[in-house]
Design goal:
alpha+beta, 2 domains, seven-stranded mixed sheet, four-stranded antiparallel sheet, 13 helices, 14 strands, 35% helix, 16% strand
Length: 418
């Protein structure tokens, strides 16, 4: 952002205005002092003759020159927001690719799903496969099912149930497409010994498609991960879409192991405080943007998405700007999250309207820890597909998986349909 020339001119103008106000102040004080001296000298002289009293009503109705000048003077402006203050407010809300993994995740959900969660206490649910099409995450796993043992491991029990999440409530408030995910915010606190998998499905080299880490980013080999797979809590899914293909890059955490969740909660003061803190930080950014050139005034959505992927979702840089601190917290870099005044105002309004009805609820899952060893199932048979039994959930992977028809059995395992 290059605003140095405009800022210098405004600073110089403000300095000249301040100097003028200072000189005017000296003149007023001097006039008062002279008046006081004159009054003292007049007290020793002969009183002046009595004259007719002035028309006070007329005097009151006619404003003095000082009053007219005061009325026309601009209202004092609030102090300008400094870049350092904006960065300090946003920095706790960013996530770079070499940062430690978060131990607190948030997920938005609908009224219906929130009520179901309160009743059955089941945090994780089946992925988007039953009548709603495949999610991006599940679709990419299916496309790799026959050649990738980790994909097969994650699509079967105990990792087939899921909950999509992100470390910062504000960054997914407006959703990833043209609708929000709901108004109820769920907080998930994870175990300190949790393992995370990073999934980059667009990477062509299989050995680089997956990476496994503990919370502090110590990397594990695939063999080490498989030995400790029961500690897996979430997959960090980074979708590096080529803008030329018409798609947009995004990222998300997919929680896949409820046994590694210490506690989840909904409707608590802690959650409301997190939303309020997000609003305060974004409000500071919105004020800063309103004082600067609007970053989003002429931004192309696809070009901006590519720039965010390249500059904000990789390793942490040595220094942060306000825009970089903001984009490094995003899960979705689409037009609704552009760092412009209009978009920020809409995001702030949406956060302000959040309501958390119902009593606060905290729950510690009692899901048993998966038994080791957890081994990937074999690839699906190709020649003679197993028939789907009555009651199985069937769905079509379409072109994503080469027109493979699949079914999920009541116990969660996947089989090929005829």
């Amino acid at each position: 952002m290059a605003h140095g020339g405009g800022r210098s001119a405004r600073v110089a103008k403000a300095a000249r205005a301040a100097a003028t106000r200072g000189l005017l102040g000296v003149s007023v004080v001097a006039a008062v002092a002279v008046g006081a001296i004159g009054a003292g000298a007049a007290a020793c002289q002969k009183p002046p003759p009595i004259v007719a009293a002035p028309d006070t009503a007329a005097s009151a109705s006619a404003p003095t020159a000082a009053a007219r000048a005061s009325a026309s003077a601009p209202a004092p402006r609030s102090p300008r927001i400094e870049e350092a203050a904006v960065v300090a407010a946003l920095a706790p809300r960013d996530f770079f690719d070499n940062d430690p993994f978060p131990l607190t995740l948030y997920t938005w959900t609908t009224d219906e799903q929130a009520e179901t969660l309160r009743q059955n206490r089941a945090l994780l649910v089946r992925g988007a496969v039953d009548g709603q099409g495949l999610s991006g995450y599940n679709g990419m796993l299916w496309s790799l099912y026959g050649v990738d043992p980790v994909a097969r491991l994650l699509l079967n029990p105990p990792f087939h149930l899921q909950r999509y999440a992100w470390p910062f409530p504000w960054a997914t408030r407006l959703g990833g497409d043209d609708r929000s995910y709901g108004d109820h915010l769920i907080r998930m606190d994870l175990r300190a010994n949790a393992i995370f998998a990073r999934f980059r499905p667009q990477v062509e080299i299989p050995a680089e498609r997956w990476a496994f880490f503990d919370r502090e980013r110590h990397r594990l080999t695939t063999q080490e991960f498989l030995k400790r797979a029961a500690d897996l809590v979430a997959v960090y899914h980074l979708r590096e879409v080529n803008p030329a293909s018409g798609g947009l890059a995004f990222r998300e955490f997919v929680v896949v192991n409820e046994a590694q969740v210490v506690e989840w909660s909904i409707g608590t003061d802690e959650i409301n405080n997190a939303i309020d803190a997000d609003r305060a930080a974004l409000g500071l950014l919105a004020q800063f943007v309103s004082e600067q050139l609007d970053w989003a005034a002429s931004a192309d959505e696809f070009e901006w998405n590519a720039a965010v992927l390249a500059n904000s979702w990789g390793p942490r840089p040595p220094q942060l700007s306000p825009e970089l601190a903001y984009t490094a917290g995003l899960a979705f870099a689409n037009s609704r999250y552009l760092p412009g005044k209009t978009q920020l105002d809409a995001l702030l309004k949406s956060l302000k309207l959040v309501h958390q009805p119902g009593p606060p609820l905290r729950h510690s899952p009692t899901v048993p820890r998966p038994r080791a060893p957890l081994l990937p199932p074999p690839p699906l048979p190709g020649a003679q597909p197993d028939p789907c039994a009555p009651g199985d959930n069937t769905f079509d992977c379409g072109v994503i998986a080469a027109q493979v028809h699949l079914c999920r059995t009541p116990t969660g395992f996947v089989r090929r349909c005829p």
